[in-house]
Amino acid sequence: MSKSNLIGILAAVVVIVSAFLPWLTIESKQLVFTGIDTTGSSFGEPGRVNVFMAIIAAALFAANKWWAGRVNLFISGFLLAWTFRNFLLFSRVEMGEWPHREIGLYLSLGGAIVVFICVLMMKVKQKK
């Protein structure tokens, strides 16, 4: 297993852990949102998709087959796009309420970027 595979697995774990950390705080209403718990808002639970995609990406990094690299490119691309969407969605101003972005949102985006870069740098065994 190459270094990029190990770093990709670690970055996927960071994405999973960041779904349970605080993503956003709205101080006027004393609300703290995580990727999993967004009670009091209409955000839904976008962290569940992050966790699901990160688990699949980590499993494909561990597989290290020729087909796993191609599937992982799609999965990690979707993970990066979904995480960027969450970053934009959670950090917007609504009705004059300025949210305070927390560490979980930044870790999620950073982890997804690293996962995608590791897929691009991944060395896979060629089909014979």
Which helices and strands appear, and what pairs or packs with what?
Elements: H1 3-18, E1 22-26, E2 31-34, H2 46-63, H3 66-90, E3 100-101, H4 103-120
Antiparallel strand pairs: 1-2, 1-3
Helix pairs in contact: 1-2, 1-4, 2-3, 2-4, 3-4
Q: Summarize this, please?
A:
The chain crosses the membrane at residues 7-26, 46-64, 71-91, 103-122. By secondary structure, this protein is mainly alpha-helical.
Order of helices and strands: HEEHHEH
Low-confidence runs (pLDDT<50, min 5 residues)? none
| Structural domains: how many | 1
Secondary-structure class: mainly alpha
Number of helices: 4
Averaged pLDDT: 88
Which of globular, elongated, flat, extended, rod-shaped describes the shape?
elongated
N- and C-termini, Cα separation: 19 Å
Q: What Rg is obtained from the alpha carbons, in whole angstroms?
A: 16 Å
Helix content: 55-70%
Strand tally = 3
Main β-sheet, in a few words? 3 strands, antiparallel
What strand line-up does the widest sheet have?
A: 2-1-3
Strand content: 5-15%
Transmembrane segments: 7-26, 46-64, 71-91, 103-122
Keywords: Membrane, Transmembrane, Transmembrane helix
Describe the structure.
The protein is mainly alpha-helical. It has one domain. It is built from 4 helices and 3 strands, in the order αββααβα. The protein has helices at 3-18, 46-63, 66-90, 103-120, and strands spanning 22-26, 31-34, 100-101. The mean pLDDT is 88. The chain crosses the membrane at residues 7-26, 46-64, 71-91, 103-122.
List keywords for this structure.
transmembrane, three-stranded antiparallel β-sheet, 4 helices, transmembrane helix, mainly alpha, membrane, 60% helix, 128 residues
